[in-house]
Design goal:
Elements lengths: L19 E2 H24 L5 H18 L2 E4 L3 E7 L2 E6 L3 E4 L5 E6 L3 E4 L3 E4 L5 E12 L2 H6 L4 H19 L16 H16 L4 E13 L1 H40 L7 H16 L16
Antiparallel strand pairs: 1-5, 2-5, 3-4, 3-6, 7-9, 8-9, 9-10
Helix pairs in contact: 1-2, 4-5, 6-7
Length: 301
């Protein structure tokens, strides 16, 4: 006999729990205390001979013990998941003093925002370069039933999924693009951070957790290639600067020649024009200060 033995996990869903106002039950507890005290005085007055006083005292003490074990306090942005013999019965989010049946299990869970900064991890980007990444994530529980009952430890689950999401996003894009034609981790923080948030929300949905904000707190080449990449960046910057400088110099030379021709300051043949272009390019593109040279002779002598 053959067959598939797959297990289907049913996702939990939060429902509102039935609980009572704790202040009313506190009043009832105080009344049971008063009743017990009065019954005790009656029993003492009868020198222990009154069966009715004894029963009344016993009922008062039992009522006090019954009521006193059902209290719990809920602070703002907190919840209590109530269970009955292991079965989930709902979550109480009402603030203040609350009361439920003593045999109900109570699990407190925070609904407040949590700020988490992950540890630096080493990731290979799209081009295979090792980089170091760390992320800052603001998350909170939205479904208490999923957080408590669908994952074993939702805080540890968040840590693991943050690391997995950072690795996924880090491998999706290159760290840098010197041609400025691709989406990169370093140059597109907002876009990449938005994709990281979507990735995290998809991963954490099973635990009833949402992500309010996230971004990268550390992004750099790994130490073993940082020096080489720095030299590459410097070389690219030098090349880009030289290109801009040459483009500007060519425009200035062209403008100078046009103005000399338009104002008929001097008539230049092709040889003199080439010599002037050469001299102007040396002056404009040179890294050192130029020294003027007075030529008293002819260009052709």
């Amino acid at each position: 006999m053959t067959g598939d033995s797959t297990t289907n996990l049913t996702a939990s869903r939060e429902v509102a729990a039935r609980s009572f106002n704790g202040y009313l039950m506190l009043l009832l507890m105080l009344l049971s205390m008063g009743w017990s005290g009065w019954s005790g005085t009656q029993l003492v007055a009868s020198e222990g001979q009154s069966s009715l006083a004894l029963v009344s005292l016993t009922c008062g003490v039992l009522a006090f013990l019954f009521v006193s074990t059902g209290f719990y306090m809920i602070q703002p942005n907190q919840g209590f998941a109530l269970t009955l013999f292991g079965a989930y019965k709902g979550t109480d989010r009402n603030e203040g003093l609350r009361w439920t049946w003593p045999w109900m299990g109570k699990a407190k869970i925070s609904l407040r925002a949590n700020n988490l900064i992950s540890e630096k991890i080493k990731v290979n980007d799209l081009r295979g370069n090792p980089i170091e990444m760390a992320a800052q994530v603001v998350w909170r529980v939205t479904d208490t039933a999923q957080a408590l009952f669908d994952v074993d430890d939702y805080k540890a689950f968040v840590l693991a999924q943050i690391e997995a999401a950072v690795r996924t996003i880090g491998a999706r894009y290159p760290y840098d693009d010197f041609t400025h034609q691709e989406v990169t981790l370093r140059g597109n923080h907002d876009q990449v951070g938005g994709e990281l948030r979507l990735e995290l929300m998809e991963r954490l949905r099973v635990a009833g957790i949402t992500v309010d904000e996230c971004g990268f707190t550390h992004l750099a080449y790994a130490q073993e290639i940082a020096g080489a990449m720095l030299r590459r960046q410097q070389a690219e910057a030098v090349v880009a600067a030289r290109k801009t400088l040459v483009e500007g110099a060519v425009g200035m030379v062209e403008m100078a020649l046009d103005m000399l021709s338009a104002k008929k300051v001097v008539e230049l043949d092709d040889e003199r024009r080439a010599a002037m272009v050469s001299n102007l390019m040396v002056v404009l593109c040179g890294e050192r200060d130029t020294q003027p040279v007075v030529n008293a002779g002819s260009l052709y002598s």
